[in-house]
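Thread: "does anyone have the structure for this chain?"

Original post by V.I.:
We have the sequence but no experimental structure in hand. Need at least a predicted one for the grant figures.
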Amino acid sequence: MSEKKLLILNKKQISQKIDRMAYQVWEDNMHEEEIVIAGIADCGFTLAKRIKEVLERISGLKVLLMRISLDKNSSHLKASTDIPVEDCSGKAVVLADDVLNSGRTLAYGMGVFLNIPLTKLRTMVLVDRSHRIFPVSTDYTGLEISTVLREHVDVVLDDEGENDAVYLR
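Reply from O.Q.:
Generated one for you, tokens below.
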């Protein structure tokens, strides 16, 4: 039995959303010398890489890219990063993920930075489903969509960008 999928963002639309969010990040951080884009593995990190590429093309900002790996099923924070979290000290950080549903993943992602003095911490998602359980909000959102709980949003972002799509099933 095949599941019915509805395309809600195609490759071009995703690219436009990423460009718009990158401009918003730049506008919010024009006076910063360096910012950190921290992407939650896997799709959040791919989104972070894309944002970094656009920011470096349109601005003079120095952008440090960080990958955060989380155990999303744990009842407490279990996270690792590919660069030391201390490298973010005194900088603005943008935490990126693909979909905001309950808010647990973003809350855990923010927990990584709790003991680090940052100039600011912002959040970014490609798709916000608005089913929050945790008190988490986004500063930069590609698309906000109203869904019912039994629906699922699938984000496909590959390294080359050839098969990018967002589906509702």
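V.I.: this helps a lot. The mean pLDDT is 93.
O.Q.: and The helical segments are 11-28, 43-58, 104-111.
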